[in-house]
Amino acid sequence: MTKRILSCMQPTNKLQLGNYLGALVNYVKLQEEGAECLYGVVDLHAITVPQDPQILRQSTRETAAAYIAAGIDPKKSFIFTQSAVPAHAQLAWVLNCLTPMGWLNRMTQFKEKAGKKKDQASLGLYSYPVLMAADILLYQATHVPVGDDQKQHLELTRDIAISFNQHHAKREFFTIPEPFITGEATRVMSLRDGTQKMSKSAESDMTRINLTDDADMIAQKFKKAKTDAGMVPANAAEAQGRAEALNLIGIYAALSDTSKDAVMNEFGGKQFSDLKTALSDLAVAKLSPITSRMNELMDDTAELDKILKVGNDRANELAEPTLNGVMEIMGFWS
Ligand code: TRP
Question: Hey, which residues are catalytic here?
């Protein structure tokens, strides 16, 4: 069986360093290894919470631009926007009807996102993992790189696929996807709280490095990043329980493609300000070509839209056999 990789990002708010190191770098690596890769911008997922349509359309472009700027080559990989491939929504409905509510009740992300206002949360937010299952199963993806916060959704996808295969199809209709957890090594945490993931939706902008931040902003954010009163730890034992120190070390290691140990070797015993200065310089060097490429693409949206049109046409073609098969199996009219 050939490998088919699929992963997606929501076009919500600004993309930040965590998306780059935790996902995009990996997307590019997989592409360069020669796997068949499909990367989606999932705007249907975005409307599980209210969105301004103009901003959503622009954010969708911006996420696609970030993919390309980070090194995803639209000639080698598929880049598509979910809403341009109607089969996602069509398959999601079928899977919704096949998924027991009990399975969804276990999803921790819904509990976190809906919080105490469960009754006001949309049905879409609740069934969002089923739409994600549709994204994956539609393309018969074999491997899905996701952060560890999405692991539960991937397990649900597998359960849904197995259930469909057992109940509706005589043969193995859906490919059972393998998770590909990319989190741990490059899990980027908030610059203000080393126990919270760096997030594009966190309230304070100082918690994250956005892919659109300029050099001054990056320097300022690292300078103000929370640390502790000690020196930079020189080894894993010294780093124990020091979440903020470990985060900066981890970011430095990921950006320079080395290990945390190597970084601790280099900076151990020095002031945090030394590490922060080096980190700012490194981040600016790595991110500025991406930022400027992103800006270029966003300045010429006609060109970007053309690239997306090609990707969307190909995604529609790839999705067609699965959707037709489901229509047939379900007894629908096509
Ligand atoms: N739920 C994922 C997130 O919020 C995004 C996503 C949607 C996704 N569909 C997907 C990821 C399919 C991988 C595969 O991060």
Answer: 113, 197, 200
CB of 134 closer than 6 angstroms to any ligand 1 atom: no
CB 245 within 8 A of CB 272: yes
Are 39 and 72 within 8 A, CB to CB?
yes
Q: Using a 6 Å cutoff on CB, does residue 150 contact ligand 1?
A: yes
- Decide: 81 in ligand 1 pocket, CB within 6 A: no
| Side-chain-side CA neighbours of residue 259 (13 Å) | 6
Tell which atom from ligand 1 comes closest to the C-alpha of 6. 14
**Two tokens, residue 103:** 């399975």
- CA distances 326 to 140, 187, 232, 314, 320, Å, are 12, 37, 56, 19, 10
Largest CA distance in the chain: 70
Residue-by-residue pLDDT tens, the chain, 334 positions: 689 999 999 998 678 898 899 899 999 999 999 999 999 999 999 999 999 999 999 999 999 999 999 999 999 999 999 999 999 999 999 999 999 999 999 999 999 988 888 899 999 999 999 999 999 999 999 999 988 889 999 999 999 999 999 998 777 899 999 988 765 456 899 999 999 988 877 779 999 999 989 999 999 999 999 999 999 999 999 999 999 999 999 999 999 989 999 999 999 999 999 999 999 999 999 999 999 999 999 999 999 999 999 999 999 999 999 999 999 999 999 7
CB atoms within 10 A of CB 222: 24
